[in-house]
Amino acid sequence: MTDTRWRITVDHDVCIGSAVCAGTLPNRFKIVNDKSVPVESEVEPDDDVLGAAESCPMEAILIVDAGTGAVLAPEV
Amino acid sequence: MPPIEQETSILSMDPPEHSRLRKLVARAFTARQIERLRPRTQAIVDDLLDRMIAAGSPADLAESLAWPLPITVICELLGVPVEDRDRFRVWTDRLLSLSGTEIEQTMQARESLDAYLADLIAQRRVEPTDDLLGQLVLARDEDERLSEGELVAFGVTLLVAGHETTANQTGNFVFLLLDQPQLWQQLVGDPDLVPAAVEELTRFVPLGASAAFARIATEDLELGGRLVRKGESVVTTIASANRDETVFDRPDEINLTREQNPHVGFGHGVHHCLGAPLARLELQLAVGTLVRRLPGLRLAVPADDVAWRVDRLVRGVRALPVAW
User: Fold this and answer.
1) Which residues of B187-218 are buried (b: 16+ CB within 10 A; e: fewer)?
2) Which residue in chain B has the smallest CA separation from A49?
């Protein structure tokens, strides 16, 4: 059991609404007005969320550790 | 046409298997990574046009630019020797053919491509490379992140999808721009419009010659007000969605300065084109360089005499005779 939480944000200036994320993880991302929006902005650690961020063609999905602020995705 | 069994293609897989494979190469195709290929891609375009111009007007733009550009780029990215292109083009050409009478040839083409990729993979096990194919071999051998069959199929898919699409659309785009010279002149007058023009042409010009792949419902769902039951197939028509009058103002008109352009020319959802950033780069550089270097470009034959490929999955000109 861990208290770590991950914060998900999508940069709407960059997102092109490809829906790779929403198609992969419909429980985590949805498309609203042609842009991706996280279903919940804070989630428990979930490798699938990292995978979705890494699969974004625009690298528009930012995952940070809510406690430390460390960037978990995208990779630099 | 009888079905061809092909279980391991990323084109038809569902998550989580699809996500596992896509993730392996997604980083190589992000907009940021692809941007790094811009100088090299521009150099390839310039080299091809140097040769076309040196050979003199008229020329076949399809063979001079539209085909060799994406073939060269995807070969360099994957690590496929570009000098083998005449060999694998015969196979990929056959693979995308829809003529039902020669199914054995289609199967044979697939086997030839599989064997060709398997050979390149084997070479990388002797001598590792840092190209995309080499990275996939490492993902297989060191981390077991994909099976041997998936590795070969992935290589084939990347090679075929990596050039057939852009090659055909480059010819289609330039044909349309030269057939409607006011559009060409608009770009000549303002080359900064090229990226928006590529988006608009991706919306307007259908790539598929037929409906897209059938998608099979994995659970009951309501779609467009109708119940689709688990196991039933849905055939979407991207070309129709791209002319949706509830989304696009004057959808049947080409507007190179269209501001809101949420087209689905690269698909939508998990199967959204992996190579979209690369396709955009190649199309922008091909059209943009032509506009800049050959502003007087025109069709060398009447538009009706331009021959089109038939019975293929993707639309495209057989040849595009141009003069300048």
Assistant:
1) bbeeeebbebbbbbbbbbbbbebeebbebeee
2) B19
